Amino acid sequence: MPRLALYALVVCVLAVAAAVVSFVQGAWIGGIVWVLLVGVTSNMAWYYHRRAKALKARQTV
Predict the structure, then answer these.
(1) Rounded to whole angstroms, how far apart are CA atoms 23 and 31?
(2) Which residues have CB under 8 Å from 9's CB, separation 6+?
(3) Is pLDDT of 1 > 90?
(4) Which of 20, 24, 40, 48 is the most exposed place for a label (fewest CB within 10 A)?
(5) What is the pLDDT of residue 60?
């Protein structure tokens, strides 16, 4: 897994934990912000993973 995808995945997992904590504490606005960050970072992780996979496939052809 490429480094940027791994970093994005780590941030995604941490944001999920922060969202759960925010919702448990009753901070709904903060929880929603964390959920939005989860969406962005998961898309980044997916993008960088797919990009590295496509580059690797292109190099082998």
Answers:
(1) 5
(2) 1, 41, 42, 45
(3) no
(4) 24
(5) 83
Show the domain range for 20. Answer: 2-58
Summarize the confidence of residues 9-36 as an average pLDDT: 97
Alpha-carbon distance of 57 to 53, in angstroms, equals 6
Q: Which two tokens stand for residue 29?
A: 């606005």
pTM of this prediction? Answer: 0.86
What is the count of structural domains for the chain? 1
Q: Write the pLDDT tens digit of every residue in 37-56.
A: 999 999 999 999 999 999 99
Q: Which of 48, 51, 53, 42 is nearest to 15 (CA)?
A: 42
